[in-house]
Amino acid sequence: MLQGKINGVVVGADRIAANGDAANKIGTYGVSVSAKVHGIPFYVAAPVSTFDLSLSHGSKIPIEERSADEICDGFGKRTAPEGCKVYNPAFDVTPAEFIAGIITERGIISPVNRENVEKMV
Predict the structure, then answer these.
(1) What does DSSP say about strands 101-104 and 22-25: parallel, antiparallel, or unpaired?
(2) Within a 10 A sphere around the Cβ of 76, how many other Cβ atoms?
(3) 76 has pLDDT over 90
(4) 14 is catalytic
(5) DSSP secondary structure, 18-39, as one string
(6) pLDDT (average), residues 46-71
(7) Of these residues, 14, 21, 69, 73, which one is catalytic?
(8) Measured between alpha carbons, how far is 101 from 88 in angstroms, rounded to an integer?
């Protein structure tokens, strides 16, 4: 992105809230922030079945937390002190305002907001 070699970003989503906030694999949020800083459009591609209109915002999306062993005992070797506190979420949430559009089988939602999500879904 810094070198100007990327024109756009497309990611998937595991769940999308009614306002367009999108949960995806951990690290997606960071990519969206970088894209925003560099003026690169960031898109989410997902079927309409991914939307959960019962969740008003991304903060309502339940985030799976994985075992601390993935971090502290990676590949069978202890890599962190015993008793070390670990936060190991499997997903993060990208805010709708960072998303240029949501690509669905019914069309593209843009701008991404509750009104446009409800029209498409």
Answers:
(1) unpaired
(2) 6
(3) no
(4) yes
(5) TTS-EEEETTHHHHHHHHHHTT
(6) 95
(7) 14
(8) 28
Mean pLDDT of 63-73: 91
Residues 12-55: tens digit of each pLDDT: 999 999 999 999 999 999 999 999 999 999 999 999 999 999 99
pLDDT-derived band at 77 (thresholds 50, 70, 90) equals confident
Is 11:43 a contact under the CB 8 Å cutoff?
yes
Whose CA is closest to 48, among 109, 111, 105, 119?
Answer: 105
Mean pLDDT for all residues in the chain: 96
**58 Cβ contact list (under 8 Å, min separation 6):** 17, 19, 21, 22, 23, 93, 94, 95, 96
Residue 34: exposed, middle, or buried by beta-carbon count in 10 A (0-12, 13-18, 19+)? Answer: middle
